[in-house]
Amino acid sequence: MRAELRQEQRLQLALTKELVQAIELLQYSAVDLEAFLYERSLENPFLEIRRSRGRQRAHRTERDQKQWLENIGARQETLVGHLLSQLPSLKLADRDERIVRCLIASLDEDGYLRVPLVELAAQFSASEQEMERGLRLVQSLDPPGVGARDLAECLRLQLERLPERDELAETIVRCHFVPFAEKSWKTLAKQLGVGLGELQRVFELIRSLEPRPGIHYSSDKPPLVVPDVIVARGADGDWVVAYNDDIHPELGWNREYEQRIAASGDRQAEQFIKEKYRQFAWLAKSLEQRKQTLLQLMAVIVERQRPCFEFGLSALKPMTMREVAEELGVHESTVSRAVRYKYAQTPFGTVELRRFFSSAATAEATDEAASSTQVKAIIQELIAAEDPQAPLSDQQLADLLHERHGIAISRRTVTKYREQLRIPSSAKRKQYTNL
Q: Which one of 206, 223, 272, 354 has the lowest number of neighbouring Cβ atoms within 10 Å?
């Protein structure tokens, strides 16, 4: 064994700070990108963020403006605010009002009280009887069902507030809720001495109730969905992909401020200007690369998913990120970053780019193969048109898919898609009539 010196050449990719920044810019959403650029403008005194995009706005049509307005979430009254506004009408004593306010503050966004009353009583130095009385007051407020501790209690509270009380429905919810929900109706009908048609009537009544009474008073502000690209028909009838320049600030370099700093003749100042200009140039280059990557990616999606843009997402064809990456000549992770939190404005609405990717429902992914999204849409149509008294089983759905649409998938796959659509099994979809 001896020591020796050896010289060799090796090609190695180094993740520089600028390269990491380019990767981050690609995966930023439009909102995050704008925040990132303003943050960089605070670090670079020569960097300007310009919002003036007159030429783009001049070409915006009335239809485009309407679609933009559809993406803006409306402000909603919060559940807590709605409940507190009803307290003056109860004319409560100070202590009772504090307990009621405590209970209201403990409700979750669905309007349920998930915290045990024993814990709340200990926390606010109150007796359990006082908390029980306060909870009954909360449950008397609007919306009906608020303040319930579980689903059965929530439904019972709503049934008790109906103009015409239904004794059978209240009994089922109070004493037989689990077997009723699992549709063990034949056994339950014998226990209650009623027909299956009566249970079906109660089922329809309960289904008309609200299982989440607080859902219409969400405390979260709906997010603003901003499309990064716009897909529309051109003058020649073909599909055209355009980058949404309106949502991205324009970068500029403050020449006047540069000249004022450079006039001092300080070498450190000149070096500072060069460094900041290098950062500005790299940032502008990264933004242009992001723009071109999104345009190229969307062009491939439009070319491969033409039926989807013609007829909607129900005509979506199988397409994976790996296939698109190979066509673009980039790594699959680049496509994954590019579609993350990105949206496209299409004739059928604003759609997340990830939705255009779908695996094949069958093992053989040919050009005529159906995507999982398309198969799910067909399953929904078949179930919507079925006889409620004789619902289609998963095997029957698989047979119909093969006979009517030429899609050969197993019963197990149909079951998986049905569960993903949150559609109950045929046994739980079955409806009964009075005999």
A: 223
